[in-house]
Amino acid sequence: MCGAELHALPEPVQRVARALQDAGHPNAPVMLDDAARTAQQAADALGVALGQIAKSIVFRRKGDEVAVLVVTSGDLRVDEKKVQALVCAEGHKLGRADADFVKGRTGFSIGGVSPLAHRSPPVTLIDERLFRFTEIWAAAGHPHAVFRLTPQALQSLTSAPVCDVTVAA
What we know:
Radius of gyration: 15 Å
Shape: globular
Helix content: 25-40%
Largest sheet: 8 strands, mixed
Structural class: alpha/beta
Order of helices and strands: HEHEEHEHEEEHE
Number of helices: 5
Strand content: 15-25%
Number of strands: 8
C-alpha cells in the first residue's frame, strides 16, 4: 500500500494497515464481502481451516482494569484459569470484557479486534498451538477485515510471549 488506498478503509483498519506497513509486513488488510465476526465465518470466507484463524479474545484484569488479549487458534477455547495464572498477581482475578470495555481499551469492536495497533497496548499472550500452521489470518480492525501472516510474524509484530493458554483437548 502506498497510502492513498488507506483512506477508503474504515479508520481502525487504517490503523492496522499503517502498523503493518511501518513494521515492513508484506500483507495488507483485505476487506471481505461478508462479515467475519467469528472464527468460523472468517475461515469459511477465506477457505482455510478453522484453526488458521487467529482469534482475539479480550479479558478484563480486575483491580487495574487492564485489557488482556489472548490470540489463539479459531478451533480452540481459551482456558481462563491458565491466562489468569500468567497475568494476574496472587489473589487477583480475570473477568470477561464487555463490548464497551473492548472498544474503549483497544479501539476495535468485538468481531474485529486486531492483535496489533491498539488504542492502549494490552497485555498480550499468543497460544502456542497457533504454531501448528505455516499461515494464519487475523482480524484487521473491522468485522470484514483480515490480514495474512505467520505465527512467527504475529509474535514479532506483537512482542507477545507464546504460552499454553487453551483448554486441553
